[in-house]
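yo, Prolactin-releasing peptide receptor is done. seq:
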Amino acid sequence: FTGLDLLLELKPLFIPLYATLVAVACTGNLFLILLIALTKKLHCTTNFLIGNLAAADFIMCLACVPLTVSYAFEVRGWLFGMFMCYFVTLMQAATVFVSVLSLTAIAVDRYVVVAYPIRRRISRKSCICIVACIWLLSIMASVPTSLHTQYLDLNTIGHDMIICEEFWKHEERERLLYSCLMLLLSYMLPLLAVSVSFCAITYHLRRRNIPGAAYPCQDKWTKTKQKTFRVLTVSVVCFAICWLPLQVVNFIRDIDEEFTILDKRYVNVIQVSCHLIAMSSACYNPFIYASLHDKFRFHLSSYF
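structure:
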């Protein structure tokens, strides 16, 4: 079998899994977005960032995943036109960066809330600006990928296939540098942010004394902040576990163009399997926040 032949053999297994993933992720994230939007008591910086994370996952699963999967299993290649080729490539990368930057911003916000409890909270206008900056930076970081994507119609040379792929002609060093940079920004950044934030929050909670407050009140405040941060930690750990296989495979493919590490016969199946695991990260956040976050659970129960 060639890599594509083996992948097509496994199509009956992968398609239902992807369909389930898209259905669960779109439903869960849309519900989370609506819950935050319609519940005024949930209107705060952290929850707006959670909503932004849910929006990125929703867009990725609705607009990018179905087309990417179709391309992977379609022998004729890309069937959605030139514009969608570049658009999906851009949005696939951008939504990942939005998720990463949102998780990072949540970690920073949690630290600020604990370290400076009496400081005035960020206004809604400022929060909107933060969300807009996250999307702008994410799109800018994704532009190199889109610029190096090519839409090639092979029908003009007698092959019934259209290719939508990323090519870095004579720019091997630049491609490797960009890949390493993206690995740091799209994977290591949220892990580092949460780790630093966790250490800083732990330090502040241990040394804090609330003047004039009773110990039960202080204990309640401390436990509330710890529980909120625990939810963020679970979310980031899920993100890290889901994306690790794809990050490793992509890095290996970047440094191993001759397929000496990954066998050509299995590389497509490995790539799609890792992509499926990575995309599944979009399913978990709604359940994490609904089950572990007290406020989300309370307001969720009020609608049913």
